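Long-time lurker, first post. I've been practising inverse folding by hand and with some scripts of my own, and I keep getting stuck on stretches where the C-alpha cells seem ambiguous. Below is the full C-alpha cell string for one chain I'm working on. Before anyone asks, I'm not after the true native sequence, just a reasonable design that respects the backbone. If someone could post their per-position residues I'd love to compare against what I wrote down in my notebook.
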C-alpha cells in the first residue's frame, strides 16, 4: 500500500526596484516598475521511499552556488535531501540576477526555500497522474527558421485524496523573451502569465509550476514576430547563422533575436494559448495514489578537451557568464526523476530542441509513457549544443566555446544517463 502525500507552496521573490535585469545586453537602467510579481512555486511529494521537491522560480537562471544554498536551507528545515530537489527557473528575461544579494532584504536562497518549506507543511494524502499534448504555432526555431520546434506540452496533475486538483507541473520549450531589452518592468513574461491563468482557472488555491524544455534555440512566435516575417525584409537568425526572404547582406533586414517592442498583449497571447492546452491536458489525466517515485543524480565533466577550441570568442555578456574555477573540470549535474508515468531528465543550461526530441524518442522506446527534458535546472552553464551545431557557429555556440564547454557534452550526458534509464525502463 502506498502512502503518497503532496503539497504545494509559493512565495514572492520580486526584487527591489532599480535592480539590474538580466538576459539582454545594453540595459544599464534598472527595473522601473513591477508589472507582475515574480514567484517561486514548489511541489513536494512524499511516499514510503522518500521525499522530493520540485521548484520553479520566475528568474532567468539560478547559478550553482544559489542551488547549493537553496538545497542546504531546505534540508535544514525539512530534512529533504539536497539531491532530491529539482530546482528550475522559467528563464524570464524580465527578472534580476541571482548573484546580487542586495536585490532582496533576505538571501534569495532562503526566500525560495520558504516555498519548499510551505509545500512540505502542506503535505496531505494525494494522487498524481501525467499526460502529454502539443502546442503548435507559437514557437519558432531562432537559429534555422525552417528547422524543427518541439511542440510537446507535458503536465503532471496532483489531486487531493478526493480527486480535487491541488496543482499542476508543466513543461514546454519556448524562450521567455516575448518582452525585449526595451522593457524595464519586472515580469514573469509569458510563463508567469500562463501560470496565473491556470491557477485562476483551477481555483481553490491551486498552484501551477512551469519548466522549460529544449528551448535554447526556440523563440516565441507571437503577433509582432509574424508581422516582421511579412515586412518585406531579409530575416536573419540569431547569431546570423542563416538568412531568409533575401540576401544576408541586404541592408534592410530584421534579426529574429531582436525582441525590441515585445508587448504585454503578446505575453497574454502566448500565455493564454499555453494555459488552454495545459488545462485541457490536465482534464484528461487520470490520477492514482499508486505512483512509484525514484531519482538518481549523475555528474559529467562538461569541459572541453585540451586544444578542442583553439580560438575562444569573447563572452557575449561577460556579467552573465558562470564562474568556472577549474577549466579542466566543469561539473554538469543531471537529475533523473520518475513520478509514476512521468520521467524527467534535467540539464543545467540552455538545450536545443533537437536534443529534447531525440531524448523523448529514446525514452518512449524504453517504455516511459510521458518523458520530458527539464532545462535551466540545478545550475546554469549557458548553452549546451550538440556536436553538429558547433561548426555552424552563432550566438549560442560562441557562449559555449567562450566558457570552455566541450562540443561533446551532449554525447557525454547520453552515455551517462541512457544506461540507467534503460535499466529502470525494463523493470
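-- Answer (accepted) --
I ran through it position by position. Result:
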Amino acid at each position: 500500500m502506498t502512502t503518497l502525500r503532496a503539497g504545494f507552496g509559493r512565495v514572492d521573490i520580486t526584487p527591489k526596484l532599480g535592480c539590474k535585469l538580466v538576459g539582454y545586453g545594453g540595459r544599464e537602467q534598472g527595473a522601473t516598475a513591477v508589472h507582475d510579481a515574480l514567484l517561486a512555486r514548489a511541489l513536494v511529494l512524499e511516499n514510503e521511499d522518500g521525499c522530493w521537491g520540485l521548484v520553479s522560480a520566475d528568474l532567468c537562471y539560478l547559478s550553482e552556488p544559489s542551488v547549493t544554498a537553496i538545497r542546504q536551507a531546505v534540508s535544514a528545515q525539512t530534512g529533504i535531501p539536497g539531491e532530491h530537489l529539482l530546482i528550475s527557473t522559467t528563464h524570464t528575461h524580465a527578472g534580476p540576477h541571482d548573484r546580487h544579494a542586495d536585490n532582496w532584504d533576505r538571501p534569495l536562497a532562503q526566500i525560495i526555500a520558504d516555498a519548499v518549506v510551505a509545500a512540505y507543511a502542506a503535505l496531505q494524502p494525494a494522487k498524481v497522474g501525467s499526460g502529454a499534448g502539443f502546442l503548435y504555432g507559437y514557437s519558432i526555431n531562432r537559429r534555422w527558421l525552417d528547422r524543427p520546434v518541439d511542440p510537446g506540452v507535458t503536465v503532471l496533475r496532483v489531486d487531493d485524496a478526493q480527486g480535487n486538483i491541488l496543482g499542476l507541473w508543466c513543461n514546454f520549450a519556448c524562450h521567455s523573451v516575448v518582452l525585449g531589452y526595451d522593457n524595464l518592468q519586472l515580469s514573469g513574461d509569458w510563463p508567469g502569465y500562463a501560470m496565473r491563468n491556470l491557477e485562476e482557472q483551477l481555483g481553490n488555491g491551486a498552484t501551477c509550476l512551469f519548466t522549460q524544455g529544449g528551448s535554447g534555440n526556440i523563440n516565441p512566435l507571437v503577433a509582432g514576430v509574424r508581422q516582421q516575417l511579412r515586412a518585406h525584409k531579409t530575416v536573419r537568425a540569431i547569431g546570423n547563422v542563416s538568412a531568409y526572404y533575401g540576401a544576408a547582406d541586404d541592408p534592410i533586414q530584421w534579426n529574429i533575436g531582436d525582441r525590441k517592442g515585445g508587448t504585454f498583449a503578446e505575453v497574454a497571447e502566448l500565455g493564454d494559448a499555453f494555459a488552454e492546452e495545459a488545462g485541457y491536458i490536465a482534464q484528461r489525466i487520470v490520477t492514482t495514489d499508486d505512483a512509484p517515485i525514484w531519482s538518481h543524480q549523475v555528474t559529467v565533466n562538461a569541459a572541453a578537451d585540451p586544444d578542442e577550441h583553439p580560438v575562444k570568442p569573447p563572452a557575449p555578456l561577460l556579467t552573465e557568464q558562470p564562474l568556472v574555477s577549474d577549466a579542466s573540470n566543469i561539473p554538469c549535474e543531471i537529475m533523473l526523476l520518475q513520478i509514476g508515468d512521468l520521467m524527467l531528465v534535467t540539464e543545467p543550461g540552455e538545450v536545443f530542441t533537437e536534443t529534447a526530441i531525440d531524448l523523448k524518442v529514446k525514452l518512449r522506446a524504453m517504455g516511459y509513457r510521458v518523458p520530458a527534458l527539464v532545462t535551466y535546472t540545478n545550475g546554469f552553464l549557458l548553452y549546451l549544443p550538440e556536436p553538429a551545431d558547433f561548426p555552424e557557429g552563432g550566438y549560442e555556440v560562441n557562449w559555449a566555446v567562450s566558457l570552455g564547454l566541450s562540443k561533446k557534452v551532449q554525447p557525454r550526458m547520453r552515455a551517462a544517463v541512457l544506461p540507467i534509464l534503460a535499466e529502470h525502463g525494463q523493470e
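A couple of notes from the structure itself: The chain has a mean pLDDT of 95. The chain has two domains: 5-284, 293-425. Happy to go over any region you disagree with.
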